[in-house]
Each structure stands twice: as C-alpha cells, then as structure tokens.
Amino acid sequence: MFSQESRASKNVTSFTIDAPQLNCAKKIWLYLPNGYANSKKKYPVVYMHDGQNLFDAETAYAGEWNIDEKLDSLNAQVIVVEIEHGNEKRIDELTP
Q1: Domain for residue 5, yes or no?
Q2: Can you tell me whether residue 36 is helix, strand or coil?
C-alpha cells in the first residue's frame, strides 16, 4: 500500500470512498491499536482532518505530524480516523 520510503506505522491503513457531495473521491486513513484485530474490546475513536499530513512524510504537504509514531510509543488504545482534505478545495470543504 505504501512505498518503501513511507514512514507510516504498520498500524496504519487506508482506503478510498466516493464523496458525491464533493464530486470526488476521498482517501480515509485509519490507525488501529496493537491487538485490535484479535480484540472484542471497544475503543475510543478520534476523527481528524488533513489526513495526508498525519501519518506519512511522503504524502504530507508541509511535513508529517508523526501521529502514528506518537500513538505507537504510548501504546495508545485508540482508533484514529482521518480524512484527506481536497488540496486547493480545502477551505471550501472545511469551512461553512
């Protein structure tokens, strides 16, 4: 999924959905905590925007925010859902 230069954690995955309201497709990034696949536990969820900046220097606009590295170092038991912004349409998408 990621190139060899990717710095994203093994706990990060992504997928794309159609966003007909915005007339485009959106990439969604997920951070799942260690042990998630084999757990029946409920986890808190944090939703964030600017997804391309949070996990991977390769996709970041102005530097990676290192969210996954920090969560890994804390062994954080949280799910993070991030949606990419629309680049030049970012302001239109994120402001009323």
Answers
A1: no
A2: helix
Q: Are 80 and 31 in contact (CB under 8 A)?
A: yes
Each residue's pLDDT tens digit in the chain (96 positions)?
Answer: 444 445 678 899 889 999 898 888 988 989 999 999 999 999 999 998 877 777 877 777 777 778 888 999 999 999 999 988 777 787 787 777
Burial class (CB in 10 A: 0-12, 13-18, 19+), 7: middle
Adjacent-strand bridge partners of 14: 29
Rounded to an integer, what distance in angstroms lies between the CA atom of residue 91 and that of residue 71?
28
Give the domain range for residue 37.
Answer: 12-88
| Nearest of 29, 60, 61, 20 to residue 47 by alpha carbon | 29
Task: Tell if the pTM clears 0.85, that is, is over it.
Answer: no
Kindly state whether residue 93 falls inside one of the protein's structural domains: no
